[in-house]
Amino acid sequence: MSVESIETNPLRALSPQDLRAHAAEALTRARERSVALTDIDDEELVRQHSKLMSPLVWDLAHIGSQEELWLVRDVGGREALRPDIDDIYDAFQHARADRPELPLLGPEEARKYVSEVREKSFDILENVPLQGRRLTQDAFAFGMITQHEQQHDETMLATHQLRKGDPVLHAPAPPSARSGRLPAEVLVPGGAFTMGTSAEPWALDNERPAHEVAVEAFFIDTTPVTCGAYTEFLDSGGYQDPKWWSERGWAYRSEHGINAPRFWKREQDGWWRTRFGVHEKVPAAEPVVHVSFHEAEAYAAWAGKRLPTEPEWEKAARFDPATGRSRRFPWGDEEPTPEHANLGQRHLRPAEVGAYPAGASPLGVHQLIGDVWEWTSSGFEAYPGFAAFPYREYSEVFFGGDYRILRGGSFGTDAAAIRGTFRNWDHPIRRQIFSGFRCARDARPGEVG
Ligand SMILES: [Fe+2]
Fold first, then answer.
1. Which of 169, 225, 343, 393 could form a disulfide with 370 if both were Cys (CB 3.0 to 4.6 A apart)?
2. How far is the centre of ligand 1, averaged over its atoms, from the C-alpha of 178 (Å)?
3. In terms of domains, do 48 and 112 share one?
4. Which of 104, 132, 162 corresponds to the end of one domain?
């Protein structure tokens, strides 16, 4: 059986009219988030809340600028609206730390610009043929731009987390644990599975093509590592003992004086954290978030385990042992619903482990999608047969760099920008992102059934 024949493209079943409506709905949902995240005082929009981040007003106009380049100029073949600002909003030209010094559009101007671009994009979506050209096949360009905006919405959410002052974002609490007591770990059988995709219509170039990868049998944690479990590592002196850390991780920890996950502080009565301006006790049952790769790796060593490789993570998430097929999501091929996963900034925190039994994989692994991005031990490399599309700067220029792969998305990620094959990458020191992890370990000979 070829890997192609067992994959399905969910958009091919839609009529052209429904495909246009699907793309329009995805673009609109992204814009609603962008508007909500920038609905704050002008002064807060233009301020740089951290050297790690752009001013929010840069993200906003950059979203419009990318949309203008791809949808208005390329797909639509229309005249440029603002060629004069192309350079300012080119992420490759200016590091985040330098962006406040640029002659940025002001808040009012930025809002007006993104609305004008969007109006043209909708007109183009109505009129351009959605076939015949790879960029428009299955409305790919519209999906790509939706994902780009959603990714910046997650970045802007991370900026909000770094912002000082009273809370400005509000959302209901996520569901509590609904599963009974879960086993600590799950055995994933050894053997080949289909990794990546050739059929997923809005998958980005680095997720392609589908290919066979073999892994040895291994155990993976049923859920992400919780704050409660992580606190044991902290309280047993894990941040003071180099034996759990890689040489590089220890140097980083020592140099930056890192003694706990970012935004955590030890008080008289235990660990507290700041979350979008709220000061609260660290919740034991929630996945730990805001840890770097180095911290995740050290915890795993302390626990007598290791981080999963990227293929291991994807096999645990997608492989269905009953059919031998890889699913689009752990629960199946259908799009995420609020029953499956904590996505889309519906809640401003990860949910307790066990909160999404309907989202478990066939092997019984929980919360792979949503809640926290999960560090893997793998670097960012091209899959065999990779072809850059639609531009080298999307992925190719990052291959082989000093990155680790993160998988699964967080509570800040929209459903349009996550799936079982989606690959995120970041520097191993990063922790302002919504990053957590789960552990894995080799299966010993007597343990493989
Ligand atoms: Fe961007």
1. 343
2. 37
3. yes
4. 162
Of 162, 180, 200, the one marking the end of a domain is 162
* Of residues 1, 149, 7, the one with CA closest to residue 68: 149
Q: How far is the centre of ligand 1, averaged over its atoms, from the C-alpha of 63 (Å)?
A: 7
- 0.85 exceeded by the pTM? yes
The alpha carbon of 340 and the centre of ligand 1 are apart by a number of angstroms equal to 28
Strands 185-188 and 404-407: unpaired
| Mean pLDDT over each residue of the chain, to the nearest integer | 95
Q: How many domains does the chain have?
A: 2
What is the distance in A from the centroid of ligand 1 to the CA of 397?
Answer: 15
* Ligand 1 center from residue 150 Cα (angstroms): 10
For ligand 1, a single-atom ion, the residues with CB < 5 A are 91
Ligand 1 midpoint to CA 65 (Å)? 9
For residue 382, the CA-to-ligand 1 centroid distance in Å is: 21
**Residue 145 structural domain:** 4-162
Report the CATH number that the domain containing residue 142 is assigned in CATH.
Answer: 1.20.120.450
Same domain for 139 and 242, yes or no, is no
C-alpha dist (Å) from residue 300 to 230, 288, 290, 326: 10, 13, 16, 27
Task: Supply the pLDDT for residue 189.
Answer: 97
Residues 105 and 20 in one domain: yes
pLDDT band of residue 6 (cuts 50, 70, 90) is low
Ligand 1 centre from 198 Cα, in Å? 24
* Residue labelled with tokens 């960029």: 135
| Separation CA 39–CA 18 (nearest Å) | 31
CATH number of the domain encompassing residue 396? 3.90.1580.10
* 90 Cα–ligand 1 center, Å: 8
